[in-house]
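#struct-help
A.M.: can someone run this one for me? Single chain, 419 residues.
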Amino acid sequence: MSVEAEMSVLGCMMLDDEFCREAIDSLTEEMFSHQKTRKIFAAAVTAYWQGQKIDGISLIGLLPEEKDTLLKLAEYVPTTRHGPEYIQIVRNDWQKHTISEAMNLIAMEAVYKTPEESLSAMKELEQEQEILVRAKKESGVSFTDAAKELIQWLRDARETKAIHCGMRALDRAMGGFLPGSVAVLCARAGGGKTDFAINLAMRAAKRGVKVQYFTMEMPASQLMQRVASYITQIDGVKIRDKLLSPQEIDGIENILKGFEESGKIHFVEEPHISLKEVRRNMELFRPDIVFIDHIGLMERPKAKDTYRALGMVSNGLKQLALEKKTPIVELCQLNRQIEGRKDKKPTLADIRESGDIEQDADYVLAVQVEDISEKNLSGDAWADAEIYLLKNRHGRPGKFQFRWMPQYHTFREVETRYG
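D.P.: on it. Structure tokens below:
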């Protein structure tokens, strides 16, 4: 394992605050192979979250016994230009080491386990191996080969397989949900993220897209109340409290039958679903797009802390999206820090619990709605809503105006310009 890369990461952290955050989001203490680098990284993380500046003086104050090493680190790299490459080397080395150890453990335990149990353990490692192989292949592509691939793609007259949601400004900004991409849809609790996800899912299903929706926060029956309200534009409270006329019930039934017969949408109701179960359900239904509502409620593997455990879930979903060439939309919470800001504008740092969620995402969409606690939203009334495209790996970020009608669980796009 590359101790030099680990030292370079630490040196870059001491030079640049932004890189420091990137390193803390991307790496964990156990990814450092050497005792000294692991110790220094752990001290830097502690200092960072305490609001201290990460430089040689502050770290020497925390680790006086490592003064000689820290002085070397401060001069180890002259610039942070290659910082992301050092991070990737550390991650790759850690992944290879982890897989090697796991393989050895499987071989040792094979004596005491059935062949089926050993095979199951091997399959759990398969995804990590595929990612490493893919990374190795991609790193060997020449400029000439890459250029040929681009020209071939540009001349290919076939239509792209991107999933469009029918919201014109968003589709134009993102290019649709591309195969293998991960989109994060986030908001504060009660901030409309499930309503927005339903709008995206039902619009896609109406366009002939096969949608699989994993719901963990509410039963499928409650989710269907929102779907029925959205489709029929009948007040959700009337549906919830069953204050409907026989004609309204017949209307809901007839409209829902159209979606049922098309077989384009499939709900999976699980209080805590694992990555394995997500994979199994995807293989059974073969969806064109997947919604996870929400990632914070998924079953987490054993890890040193919850931060890392959720990061492993995020990494696993990204690997699954790439493997199946299927876009995955992950719903997640924004933390309370946003409430303390005057403009309440969301940022990537507001995503709750794990920086891996942001790191793995191709798109990050944040829903921000006005305070409706004192609004009487009935009939055609609406609340102003803004959708912030905070991260867009395939284009520029942007802000889009919507009208939220929570009585119908509906978001309506306000025509805006992008680009």
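A.M.: thanks! The longest strand covers residues 383-392.
D.P.: also worth noting: The two ends are 45 Å apart (CA to CA).
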